[in-house]
Amino acid sequence: HLVYKRWSRISITNIRGPQPHSILYGNFPEMLEGQAGDIDFKWQEEFGDVVRIKAPFGEDRLLLSDPKALQYIYHASGYGFTKTSGRLAVSQTIFGPGLVGVDGDIHRRQRRVMMPGFGTPEIKAFVPIFFTHAGKMAAKWRDIISGNGGLSCTVDVPSWTSRATLDIIGQAAFDYDFGALDDTDNILTKIVSNIVFDTFGLPTNKAILSLSLMDFLPFWLSRFITKSLPISRLSHAHKLNRLTGTVSKQLVKEKYDALIDGKSNKDIMSLLVKANASQNPDTRLSEQELLAQMITIIMAGHETTSNSLSWALLELAKHPEIQSKLRDEIRAKERLVLSRGGSLTATDFDNMPYLTAVVKESLRFHPVSYNVFRVSEKDDVLPLLKPIITKDGKVMYEVPIPKGLQIISSIAAYNRNKDIFGEDSSVFNPDRWLCDNVKSSVSIGMYANLFTFSGGGRACIGWRFAVLELSAFVVELLNNFEFSLTDKGDSIRREACFVMTPTLEGQREKGTQMPLNIRIASREDM
Ligand code: HEM
């Protein structure tokens, strides 16, 4: 019966795609060994926005970047496309039963309780925290430079941005001091800062096979394997869970006590505890769910923003002309703000068109979450914006798909769609946002119609946090420093480790690295 069901289901074999190099591994080694997004761009160029690829064991998968199909999956279908069993199990092992590790009704219930902590006014109120930590990092860089006795030095950017953004998450989300910028040896800092690379970096064929196999297993079995078996790649995640367990319990208790005493703290966890207390018992988060949100917010919000900032600084280092134009805008705004005796706020960012263009372009060009994975819950039909031509020359305006089909949504490829972002979509060019050159008939993303933060009911809950944090850091750092490439500039890789992470060619096993030269920025206006 199972074999009959398998062979009689809707087939997508007629859709064009690359030949696999191996029957056992399919096209996966190519996808995982190259730099993040590179193979997506190659196949998008060759086959269009709908590509059939082979997964391990000869399974068909779709690699999608068609805007209308993505809109259908992420917006229109509700929970019609869920996370795959293996990924959900890994997510639960890392995040616990928090927002990232659950699906369907449980996810809807959790998300409703979490939303009040991520509203526009709540996140805008964190901008002073973003500036404080950006300023602290800049001060430490100045100390290194003056210790060098000159005007410049080389810094490994992600090792700094990672610690600064961890301190920010601690303060803004939990009113907790990780002390990461001051204490490089803090064990929690070390684990959190390397967890993405340690868990997902440099995947072996064995790891590819294991994860693919887990997608065939029922969730409870995948969960048992990831939670209970000694899988070395997951050891950091287990350690992190243990370490944060006590801290999060203590923090949640403090928030509850403060709420009972009528004190209203503004950190995200306090807002979450408050929103939870006002729910009826059926919709309220359990203690375990509440605790899991802490690690969820740290994990989902830390390396994503830290790496996005590193990529933005790399582009600025590569493009001195963009850097100096942006610095002029920042300084003009700074003069205005100082003359009214205040400091920069989120509203000022709205009036800085070039800063906004640079942030948008950086998030488009380097979407750190470059692929997201879903599986269809029923036989379905994907609508397409652009028709495709099948292997036998037929034109298809929509794609019938079987229940259980795994879909890899390519955020990286969508963000380079030439029809939306222009013929020069593979070039870093913030000006595209200023000349009204970005056009799309399909509304898909949370910010600037990019797919960087995904879309719909499972879109990034922290996108406003990320955009404002990124803006504050770019303003503070560019105001203080000029960035340029070192002799290793051409060796920087976009490592595909689930979150796009910078490494150096020839030193990949050393983990995250991005050396850049910094120099005190001259000030003619002072
Ligand atoms: C540039 C930085 C960021 C990027 C590119 C990013 C990207 C994403 C993407 C693509 C998703 C959807 C993943 C999926 O559907 O499988 C997501 C989900 C999520 N993000 Fe972010 N994120 C960023 C920053 C943040 C921050 C700062 C926070 C929290 C403070 C955060 C919290 C979350 C959470 C909790 C989810 C799960 C949402 C859900 O399943 O309902 N993210 N993010």
Automatic annotation (TrEMBL):
GO molecular function, one term: heme binding
Organism expressing this protein natively: Guyanagaster necrorhizus
PROSITE patterns, alphabetized: CYTOCHROME_P450
InterPro entries per UniProt: Cyt_P450, Cyt_P450_CS, Cyt_P450_E_grp-I, Cyt_P450_sf, Cytochrome_P450_monoxygenase
Cellular localization per UniProt: Membrane
Phylogenetic placement of the source organism: Eukaryota, Fungi, Dikarya, Basidiomycota, Agaricomycotina
The entry's keywords: Heme, Iron, Membrane, Metal-binding, Monooxygenase, Oxidoreductase, Signal, Transmembrane, Transmembrane helix
UniProt pathway: Secondary metabolite biosynthesis; terpenoid biosynthesis
Protein name, per record: Cytochrome P450
GO cellular component, one term: membrane
Family in the record: Belongs to the cytochrome P450 family.
